[in-house]
Specification:
Strand content of chain A: under 5%
Order of helices and strands of chain A: HHHHHHEHHHHHEHHHH
Strand order of the largest sheet of chain B: 6-7-8-3-9-10
Distance between the termini of chain A: 14 Å
Strand order of the largest sheet of chain A: 1-2
Largest interface: A-B, 31 and 42 residues
Shape of chain B: globular
Structural class of chain B: alpha/beta
Largest sheet of chain A: 2 strands, antiparallel
Radius of gyration of chain A: 19 Å
Mean pLDDT of chain A: 91
Number of helices of chain B: 9
Oligomer: heterodimer
CATH topology of the largest domain in chain B: Rossmann fold
Helix content of chain A: over 70%
């Protein structure tokens, strides 16, 4: 089973590595966006799917990751490797600060406070013209030659996404990941067996924020820009929908959901500007007929007993 | 081992626990009985940190534990089962017990190891001792009510407590499940020398397994003593056992 899984992973990676020479530049860009959006959705799922934390404004960490990297490259003139790690670290730090405030609350109250604090960050970025570029954002971020081309940024995105997913997969399958699932299921029971629920939640939020920031940093590499819309609350909602669509109780579900959504938007919007209508219809059907999401459905059907906390 | 002294706890103007006193010695099986609303579960919630007392003292091995968080109290050696089944319903039977073991071993922050197979030997042993080994891979939500109650005890046991608190362990169980549960409680006491504090409405069960009984009425302690002493107490007979015995 493990051998098959390794072979499948290597096959997918091989296929993804082989793609760029056969694709036009635009599709290489889309493929990069699919990868980093998948990473973003998976990072949210670590908090919401595994930890049961209603992280309703996750893209604020995506945005801070992007701005952190973009500002380091444009204003501080920092070397690219430093900038690439500074963004995610800034996102993790913000996640820690917001988490300390939010973690006292649970469920919807947690989610609402999270949206409020995230919106504060968004409005600061949106209005602070002298530092963040305000609603214009930051464009034309200078990148090292190696990753400046569409193919270069694609391979960089692929490598970082693969490593990040590997790390998150490891975390999800660790004692910490299992404990998070326990907290999601029953925080009262978790406390009663000696688990410090708040601290574990906080740790999960910081990890999720960090990887959300990694996705943001990758966006700067792919798009050479960062702008406030990346961290507007409606985009957080969209990422949440990606998790629902793919299946929140599986590790790969959010990645599948995000890929479906990004590709739908790209290809359906060619034919109609009402692509949201089609998405809404698909989502409604999925919720009615596949409440565990697309991958959750298949996992339950073909691998009974391994669905949750896969 | 456990001493509750004049503990008071109010919900608004209602005193759910009103000057309760309780003493549990090491290795004892002590039952708390009383009519519905007497404050038994609130007392247990106070001991395990799910509620904080307004006044009074709760001492465990001579140290004040009143008002501490549940996870801190658990680490001091007190675990519990709840009145309503309280398990990790979306996890398997094995995983339920495994998390408790990992928590006791303080491995829950470990993000590098693979959880698969961790503490397997101990988990298997615990499941065997409570009779759930053959259901180890079943999602716990799918267990019968009786098995869920037993699983909850197994989870509580995995913390290797010195004091195990059971809140109505046989509530809602079928007669044969109750029998199994009683056997289990006896076994825990005999084999592991556990100190057990429980509350129960089934008087047959109480007088069958408890060594001492504490009677609560309207949040206060009416009497505590041996089963015989409690049976003979006229106040208890009037308030709870239905007149003279």
């Amino acid at each position: 089973m493990k051998h098959r899984s390794l072979v499948a992973t290597l096959a997918v990676l091989g296929l993804l590595c082989a793609l760029p020479p056969f694709l036009p530049r635009f599709y290489v860009y889309i493929a990069s966006i699919v990868l980093l959006t998948g990473l973003l959705a998976t990072s949210l799922n670590l908090a919401i799917g595994y930890g049961g934390l209603y992280q309703f404004h996750h893209t604020v960490f995506y945005g801070v990751g992007a701005y952190g990297t973009a500002l380091m490259l444009t204003r501080a003139g920092a070397p690219a490797p430093v900038a690439m790690i500074a963004g995610p670290l800034a996102a993790a730090l913000l996640s820690l600060v917001m988490g300390v405030i939010c973690v006292r609350l649970s469920k919807l109250y947690f989610g609402m406070l999270q949206i409020s604090l995230g919106s504060l960050v968004w409005v600061t970025v949106y209005r602070w013209y002298s530092f963040t570029g305000g609603d214009d954002g930051i464009h034309g971020v200078p990148l090292p030659d190696l990753i400046a081309s569409a193919k270069g940024s694609y391979y960089y995105t692929l490598a970082v996404t693969a490593l990040s997913l590997l790390a998150m997969r490891r975390i999800a399958g660790s004692p910490f990941g299992k404990t998070l699932q326990g907290i999601r299921d029953n925080p009262v029971r978790s406390e009663a067996i000696g688990v410090d629920v708040k601290r574990h939640k906080l740790a999960a939020l910081v990890i999720a924020g960090f990887f959300g920031g990694v996705a943001g940093s990758l966006f700067v590499v792919v798009d050479t820009s960062a702008f406030p819309d990346m961290m507007f609350w409606t985009y957080s909602l969209e990422v949440l929908i990606m998790c629902l669509l793919g299946g929140m109780y599986t590790f790969w579900g959010p990645f599948v959901g995000s890929s479906t959504l990004v590709l739908l938007r790209v290809f359906v919007s060619v034919y109609t500007q009402y692509w949201g209508l089609i998405l809404g219809t698909i989502l409604s059907l999925v919720i009615i007929f596949l409440p565990d999401g697309m991958l959750g459905f298949f996992a339950r059907r073909f691998r009974k007993g391994e669905v949750r906390g896969a | 081992m456990l001493r509750v002294e004049s503990v008071v706890m109010s919900f608004g103007g209602f005193k759910a626990v009103n000057g309760a006193n309780l003493h549990v010695g090491a290795g004892e099986i002590v039952a708390v009985i009383g009519p519905n609303g007497a404050g038994k579960t609130t007392l247990f919630n106070l001991i395990t940190g799910h509620l904080a007392p307004d006044s009074g003292r709760i001492l465990f091995k001579g140290r004040e534990i009143g008002g501490l968080s549940p996870h801190v109290i658990c680490r001091k050696g007190i675990t519990r089962s709840f009145q309503v089944v309280n398990i990790f319903s979306q996890l398997t039977v094995f995983e339920n017990v495994q998390i408790a073991v990992l928590s006791r071993e303080r491995k829950t922050y470990d993000i590098f190891s693979k959880v698969e197979g961790m503490a397997a030997e101990e988990v298997e042993r615990t499941l065997r001792s409570v009779g759930l080994h053959d259901k180890r891979n079943v999602e716990s939500v799918l267990l019968s009510h009786g098995d869920q109650k037993v699983l909850e005890i197994a989870v509580a046991l995995s913390g290797k407590p010195e004091l195990l608190i059971l809140d109505e362990p046989t509530a809602g169980m079928a007669p044969e499940e109750t029998e199994t549960c009683i056997r289990l409680i006896r076994k825990l006491s005999d084999e592991f020398g556990l100190t057990i504090l429980f509350c129960e409405h089934d008087m047959g069960l109480v007088f069958d397994i408890a060594q001492r009984v504490m009677v609560m009425v309207r949040g206060g302690t009416v009497v505590q003593g041996s089963c015989e002493e409690v049976r003979r107490n006229t106040e208890v007979q009037d308030a709870y056992l239905g007149g003279s015995a």
